[in-house]
Fold this sequence. Notes:
The protein has helices spanning 33-36, 44-66, 85-102, 111-117, 161-171, 178-186, 210-225, 232-257, 273-282, 300-313; strands at 2-7, 12-19, 23-31, 75-81, 106-110, 129-134, 139-144, 151-155, 262-266, 288-289. The protein is of the alpha/beta class. The chain folds into two domains: 2-116 and 296-317, 2-Layer Sandwich (Nucleotidyltransferase, domain 5), CATH 3.30.420.40; 126-290, Nucleotidyltransferase, domain 5. The strands form two sheets. A five-stranded mixed β-sheet has the order 3-2-1-4-5, with helices on both faces. Strands 8-7-6-9-10 form a five-stranded mixed β-sheet, with helices on both faces. A hairpin with a 6-residue loop joins strand 7 and strand 8. The chain is globular, with a radius of gyration of 20 Å. The relative contact order is 0.19.
Amino acid sequence: MLVMGVETSCDESSVSIVKDGKLVLSNIVLSQIDIHQAYGGVVPEIASREHVKGITRVFDQALKKANVTLDDIDLIAVTEGPGLIGSLLIGINAAKTVALDRQIPIVGVHHIAGHIYANHISNELEFPCLALVVSGGHTELILMKEHMDFRKLGETQDDAVGEAYDKIARVLHLPYPGGPQVDYLASLGMDKYHFPRPLIDSPDYNFSFSGLKSHVINLHHNLMQRAEEFEVADFCRSFQEAVTDILVHKTKKAAKEYQVKQIIVAGGVAANKGLRKKMKEWIQDIPVFFPAMEYCTDNAAMIAVAGYHQYQKNPTSSNMMLNGNSRLNLE
């Protein structure tokens, strides 16, 4: 079964061809990082315009690289939400146009389901499993008892972890995108400041990063005001140690309580080397899996894989009337 995945939830235009929910034949990603770099973050209107300019080219390149035609496609899976509504609509309308013209079934996929299923490309999911979702817009612990079955155990009460990384990077005057810069510098610094770990010992599985972010920003401001010297790398290391301690501690606790067979990490922050290292050091009695680096950030291969399993579980989920939903619920 050949599935065409389409992903345009934020600032990447991506189309992929995946065979049988596993074998990636092509995965074309047109990034807009260079364009948004001047603004220090994604500008929604600009992102939408860039999707319009590039989406047709990405479709063509994905088909060409996979050495298939639209007549070979059995299913189209497109990100339905959440995301920037303007960006979502570009991908959805392009996918629906192809589906209608060629009479191909089409399913709308939750963006976070896609990130979770990015792990399935390299590793078989075994149930029950626990997914730690960490990205610029999400920080969640998700329990899965079978394919496409999601139960949210906890989530951030304020900032997502990726958002906190980007804000700290901006305060430290690091280039955009800031998350990878903080991760790199953290490997060079020392945990000199021992920042607080909000909610690390709370009985639930919720997260909070706004207080930690404010603490770091205030300390930086005070040091600047007093003209005291400090190492940016030490700031990054102390911040990253606090964040990863919280994430790994809560994940380990949930994994034991729900007796899962494996832990998977999903989302853009899954590429964080400090998080990868600590997850594998702290959790040794349960297998921990990460997506390949190329599938951590937004891409259409993960949407195609999730769409395949969604359609296998419910063939009636094909919906030519689907629309963008910026607040789509995973559960």
